[in-house]
Design brief:
It contains twelve helices and twelve strands. With about 325 residues, the protein is an alpha/beta fold. It has a domain of about 180 residues: TIM Barrel (Alpha-Beta Barrel), CATH 3.20.20. The strands form three sheets. The chain has an eight-stranded parallel β-sheet, covered by helices on one side. The relative contact order is 0.13. The model has no long low-confidence stretch (mean pLDDT about 95).
Length: about 325
Amino acid sequence: MALIGNSDLDVFRLNLGGNPFGWTADEQTSFAILDTFAEAGANFVDTSDSYTASAPGNSGGESETIIGKWLTDRGLHEDIVVATKVSRHPDFPGLKAENIAAAAEASLRRLQTDHIDLYYAHFDDPDTPLEETLGAFDSLVTAGKVRYLGISNYTPDRIREWLRIVDDNGYARPVALQPHYNLVHRNSYEPELASIATENNLGVFPYFALASGFLTGKYRTRADLEGSPRARLTGGYFNDAGLAVVTELSKIADAHDSEPATVALAWLLTRPGVTAPIASVSRAEQLPAVLDAPNLVLSSDELDRLDHVSAAVQA
């Protein structure tokens, strides 16, 4: 377990991604995943109000709705830490003050709760003054509707501006950062965001921690991807450098009688600032590989090998 930044949120060191819920996992399957996750002693679920609006027949909020039903049905609202996000729901795009307020109310209804544990700005909104956005977030914290705030998909300069504005105005400081970061996509976090996170005690929760399944070793050829809903997301990793990372992961996993996914997540847990990687599964039987990551200790030689092969990847 680990505290998120300067908050009192004590979370398991694997953050369950809720994006498959209502997309590649129906409600029954999602409940089975969440049950297995909680039974293992894990307690941190990540979602967004926009998950998964892009799926056929969806309109956004499906993941939050399923999580809310599960929390209420199982009586676990006080035991599970839930993070969600704002700015990309089709009905609530952007980060204007009135939009944030309305989107938060909609998320609270779907999650069937009176407060959001961790509320992220999902993507920057260059058309709205940052002062307006941060004032709206602070109002939610002051009202008790949000406990803590997080930042996702912002540039280093914009994060520095965010921190300056909240300090100048006495607003609630962010406690979390959610960047795109994994063994085949390192440059957007290293080194600048990593420095900002460690200097400001921001808990870091990398998304696409398994590169949309590529780092599980499941996909070794493009033919393996045919018919997969993740084909669009993983296709760019199929090159010699990307496959070399998967090969090294598999070698290390075999040495530990483990899985490539476990090794990939364990590597992330050694990186500066990282509190818990975000990993998603579409079936409950896929969970053990990700839940084992916090317990897997990689040797310095193994970490060096992974650093070496991943440094060659440009993604």
